[in-house]
Amino acid sequence: MHKTFAGALAALALFTLPALAQQGFVEPTARPGTVEYNTWLGRTFSEVMLNERTQEGRVRILNRIVAENYIQHNPLVPQGRKGLIDFIPVIYQAMPDARFKLHDVFATADRVVTRWTWTGTLTGPGFLGVEPKGQKVEFDVIDLWSVKDGQLYEHWDQFDWPRALIQLGVKGLPQPFIDVAARPVSR
């Protein structure tokens, strides 16, 4: 495929993200190993799967897009696809109103990166040891995956944990983090 045409298709995929999220899960139109396919993988994980309200729906999507032997570099999430499947309900138990807004997807033939915002209210049984008191959170996340055999294979992430922990009411964080977290976010 001509590079200019491929770039235009990738850009088109970014512009159509919000419309596709409203439709839920859709099969890819591109073949594995392409920028367009990996863009679909990132969008499907960070926008569609994370916003799927049922565990059954999330499992169906994860089984389709995540390798069974998924390598997870976030120590809070267990290894493998099963570890991810078991962890995601923890989010919805703690924050039943959790929502994930996708801002960007960047892909190559073997990698995909997403940038998104997590919002929610801590009303469930607590989250990562934080007692629920109705705390509202809004913080940003960047995910990076390697892609192998048409599935997300290895994962790294970067959460804005200082902002999230401050919003959750965790005490004792250094003042510079508190000051930065109090500033408006430019997305």
Structural features, described:
It contains seven helices and five strands, in the order ααααβαββββαα. It is globular, with a radius of gyration of 17 Å. The protein starts with a helix and ends in a 5-residue tail after the last helix. Mean pLDDT is 87; it is low at 1-22. The chain has a domain at 3-115 and 144-160: Nuclear Transport Factor 2, Chain: A (Roll), CATH 3.10.450. With 187 residues, the protein is α+β, with helices and mostly antiparallel strands. The chain has a five-stranded mixed β-sheet with strand order 1-5-4-3-2.
State the main characteristics.
187 residues, alpha+beta, Nuclear Transport Factor 2, Chain: A, 42% helix, globular, disordered N terminus
The proportion of residues forming helix, as a percent range, comes to 40-55%
CA(first)-CA(last) distance? 33 Å
Pattern of helices and strands: HHHHEHEEEEHH
Radius of gyration: 17 Å
Whole-number mean pLDDT: 87
Strand adjacency order, main sheet: 1-5-4-3-2
> Low-confidence stretches at least 5 residues in length (pLDDT < 50)?
1-22
**CATH C-level category of the domain at 3-115 and 144-160:** Alpha Beta
Sheet with the most strands, sense and barrel status: 5 strands, mixed
Identify the overall geometry: globular
The helix/strand class is alpha+beta
Count of DSSP strands: 5
